[in-house]
Known about the structure:
Elements (H helix, E strand, L loop, with lengths): L5 H12 L39 E2 L17 H8 L6 H4 L5 E2 L12 E6 L5 H7 L6 E3 L5 E4 L2 E7 L4 E6 L13 H12 L12 E2 L2 E2 L1 E6 L2 E5 L7 H5 L10 H4 L9 H11 L8 H4 L14 E3 L8 E6 L5 E2 L11 E6 L3 H9 L5 E2 L6 H9 L1 H4 L1 E7 L4 E4 L9 H7 L2 H9 L3 H8 L5 E2 L13 H5 L6 H11 L18 E7 L3 H16 L3 E7 L1 H9 L5 E2 L1 E3 L23 H8 L10 H14 L4 H18 L6 E2 L4 E5 L2 E2 L4 E3 L17 E2 L2
Helix pairs in contact: 14-17, 21-22
Amino acid sequence: MAAMNRRDFLRLSALTAAGVALAACAKTEAPLAPTATSVSAAPTATPAPAEPTATPKPAEPTATPAPAGPSALQAPQWQDQVAAGALPEVDERLPETPMVIVPVEKIGKYGGDWGMGTLGVADSMIFARNNEYDNLVAWNIEWTVLQPGLATGWEFRDDGKTTVFSLRKGMKWSDGEPFTADDFVFWWEEASDTELNPNFPSMWTTYGDPVVVTKDDDYTVAFTYTYPYGLFLQQLGRSGSYLYSCRHYGEAFFPGYGDQATIDQKIKDSGVTYWYEAYGDWTNERLHPDHPTVYAWLYTSVLGDNPTFIATRNPYYYKVDPDGNQLPYIDRQRYTLAGDQQAIVMMAIAGDIDCQDRHIASLPNKALFVENAEAADIRFLDVKPSSMNACIIPLNLTNSDPVKRALFQDKDFRIGLSIAINRQEIIDVVNLGIGEPWQCAPLPESPLYDETLAKQYTEYDPVGANEILDGVIPDRDAEGYRTMPDGSTLGIVVEVQGSQTARIDILELVKGYWEAVGVRMAIKPEDRSLLFERRAGNDWDAAVWGGDGGMDFMLWPKNYFAQHVGAWYGPAWTIWYNTRGKEGEEPPASMRTQMELYDEILVTPDEAGQNEMMAEILRIAQEEFWCMGTYRSEEGYIVVKNDFRNVPPSHWGSGGTYPNPGPCQPPHFFWDV
């Protein structure tokens, strides 16, 4: 079986809904060739990446077998171990059909470290996107095609309700144990355990009914839904969509499999009362170096224990280059823990960052990097922002304070605050004048771009803001700040990740704008872990984050309705939606309509039908104005050492479901020295 494009997928899915059987795809695959073929030191000379559609496409099916390559070769570090009998020959460590990665520039060389900077334990995406992007399927660089990953291909059964994946025969975990369908079934057993997960992960449900994972044989696994899941493959292309769990490791700690006395002792040692309170930590490969992985680099230290977190080459990794060299080329990933983003910027200037955009690639920082480029031995490659907003400012519309809740839910109050913001001044001061005032709305490149949604309430109008706010909360205290009905001064505390200095700069300006119209505001920087912990509660006023959903709004609609925990404006509504009304708070009728439409999208196989319903979701978002944005940036870049090669000259940036740089195939990056 192999991949297929989305139009064919949708057409076939529609046919199966009418009772026509789907034909199996060919079980072979062609090498994965990144479209970009050269790297330029001058990013302005490189073309922009191709624009994805609203719902990007799986790859074209093909019956053409992968070309037979030479016998596999290996990194020098394994040769002595093989000679000593401590490690099998490389051909025995690879699957029968390794994934062949065609390089962006050329066949690489073995050796060297890849240095990056991280903010620590809560900075999960830097690991997920740089090392852990090994799913059943994976996006190509252009974000237009889904390609085989851990699976060699797939087929559809049962009128599209079941997707069957063929795994790579002979593939192994990093400890040499077989990687099979049992590991996917074990993930499902974990996800289905009501003690460990009181609510099944909603992403893998249709109308609230969980997927069922079954094993056809060791290398064939089936995912069956109650209804056809129109976005299943696209969801699998996201970072974190593993849907597998190492059975031979995890079952030792899982009731019904592991020795209960051993589990009881681990519970005691962990200082918890129940196994499920610590199971996630027990099976976290970033916290347990003995945990097997299928990633290119396996973690050899405990994240947070030391200033440097190390991941070293996996001897059983399943990808090779066209000459048969087992990947990855680079020996180790080296993550240096930093106290804030500025510390990582300083690392880059000092030459200690080899390839990274996360945390550092802001436009204000670029002038500093350019000034130090020669000394730091770095170049800049293009990254097109996929995010639709540099900083959204959602008020908590389900605030536990009933008085603030009522005020925040007043749309006129939100409009007044929005038009009090001088977005152009923010762009000039914070982003070197580059950007466009923007609300939470898809990007212009999107087929569902809506100018009204994007531009409404972005015109700076402090006089109009005062008039609107006077109609909502007219009374003021002696200092001129607006007061609540009980006479107390209204104060809005906006929480922000302390390391996100650009967003703090934005908030400093917003604070002045809001106080100029009588709304007192305080900025509360805090650690990322604490910010997320507080997000899970409901006792906060507002918090800022980036605007995901610029191009991938179909998969990541959280900024248009309360679909995900990242919908900061409605945490209690999100819980209600994801628990199917068992917990949380029932949202307003208009948002319930959005939720019903999205549920229908998930089981709709044709793209036209999906887009029609998504357009209505966006229309309601425009009407309700759930949260406000600031601006969208139109330029991006990545900092790369001059001798660090095979990085595409242009690609999409992270901002939701595109796991930059995962689709660029980091295992084939190398040092050309």
